[in-house]
Each structure stands twice: as C-alpha cells, then as structure tokens.
Amino acid sequence: YISENIKDSEVEKYYKDKIFGQVKAKHILIIPSTSDGATEDEIKEAESEAKKTAEEVIEKLEKGEDFSKLAKKYSQDTATATNGGDLGYFELDEMVDEFSDAVKELDKNEYTKKPVKTTYGYHIILKTDQKAKPKLKDVEKDIRKKITLQKLDADPKLYYQTLIDIRKAKNIKWNDTVLEDKYNDLMDQLL
After folding, report:
1. Would you give the DSSP letter of residue 46?
2. How far apart are CA 81 and CA 2, in angstroms?
3. Given this model, what pLDDT does residue 4 score?
4. Whole-number Å distance between alpha carbons of 123 and 44
5. Which DSSP helix (H) or strand (E) runs through 189?
6. Contact (Cβ atoms closer than 8 angstroms) between residue 33 and residue 101
7. Which of 2, 25, 90, 133 lies 20 to 30 A from 80 at CA?
8. Other residues' Cβ atoms within 10 Å of the Cβ of residue 143
9. What is 58-100 written as a DSSP string?
10. How far is CA 4 from CA 8, 130, 144, 148, 162, in A?
11. Are 106 and 26 in contact (CB under 8 A)?
12. What integer pLDDT is reported at residue 174 of this predicted model?
C-alpha cells in the first residue's frame, strides 16, 4: 500500500541519486590494533597509527608501486588480501556509506588519495571497473521497496496509519462494537 502510493517523482529522484551500475574495486584495509578494554587514549593512538600506515601505503602507490602487491603485504582484510584486495563486483548500497561515497567519486583505475575511515578501519580503494547503470524500468520495483522501508524506518507510526487508511479505502466495517472500540483505542495509543 505504501509502495503503491509513492510518487513517480520520488522513484525518479532515488534512481538519479542512488542507483549506479555495479562497481568493481580493490581495497587495502588497515585496522587499528586495539585490545578489549583499551582506554580512549589507546584507541586514538591505534587509529592514528592505522591512518599513518594507510597514508604510507598511498605514498607507495604514488611512487608507482603495484596496488595488488601492496594489498597482499598490508591489507588486514583476510578475505581479499591474498587476491590483491579484489572485492569483485558489488552494488554500492552493499557497502558502508563512507566506502560507497568514496568509490562513487573515483574514475576507473583511480585510487583514493586519502585513507577512507569506516567502522572497519582505514581503506585505500582502487576502482577497477563500473558497469552501466540499469534502466529505471528494471529496478523500479526494488526502488519502491527501498523507499517504502526508508519511510517505515523514518516514521514507525506510518505502518499503523497505513492499516487505518487501508480499512477506510476498502470500506471495512466492524460487526462487533466492543472489538471496534478496542481496535480504535489501540490505534490511538500506537499513533
């Protein structure tokens, strides 16, 4: 019901702003080295060291060193380090926002000039390819689902208001006035 009432202009804006072709990238992840129970100062120091290491790796890239070799040597992402940091193709919304935002800004065969900080650590990202953006008609259904979920997340009352709207639109009547009163009281509380 919510999805059916999303305006075409909302779908088009989401498509323009949020839909991209699949991206292929490599990354080098430097994770701050902290232990359980680390103090705030120890955490800051570990983050500073990780960022410094990431900046040193970027300097090596600028001197012409091979990204894949550096990934094998420095990356702490155990799933990708052995294959040169290759993440394969992915949708941008599969990654954390900071990572996706950085990849969007890169041209093919360009790497980030500054470390990208995420909840995982510091990344150096190399965009190796990008597929064409899918046609709107091919992704419209998915966009409507995503917008619906965003609306529900942003306004928890929307779900209950939608139930009320559907009952009115379908002209559903109560046969039991006691049950109707309880239902209306519950909806009032939820809204």
Report:
1. H
2. 43
3. 83
4. 17
5. helix 177-190
6. no
7. 133
8. 20
9. HHHHHTT--HHHHHHHH---TTTGGGTTEEEEE-GGGS-HHHH
10. 10, 31, 8, 9, 12
11. no
12. 87
- The number of residues in the chain equals 191
Answer whether 0.70 is exceeded by the pTM: yes
The yes-or-no verdict on residue 1 having pLDDT over 90 is: no
The answer on pLDDT for 37 being more than 90 is no
What is the model's pLDDT at position 51? 97
Sign, Cα dihedral of 79, 83, 86, 87: negative
Interhelix angle for 136-154 vs 8-18, to 10°? 100
Q: Which helix (H) or strand (E) holds 7?
A: none
Report the C-alpha gap between 28 and 81 in whole angstroms: 7
- Kindly report the backbone phi and psi dihedral angles of residue 36, in degrees, each rounded to the nearest multiple of 5, phi listed first: -60, 140
Asked whether the beta carbons of 164 and 64 are under 8 A apart, the reply is no
Cβ neighbours for 15, distance < 8 A, ≥ 6 positions apart: 136, 139, 140, 143
**Among 46, 53, 25, 45, which Cα is nearest to 126's?**
25
3-class secondary-structure state, position 15: helix
Helix (H) or strand (E) segment spanning residue 115:
none
In the structure encoding, which two tokens stand for residue 70, read together? 């550096």
Distance CA 159, CA 41 (A): 44
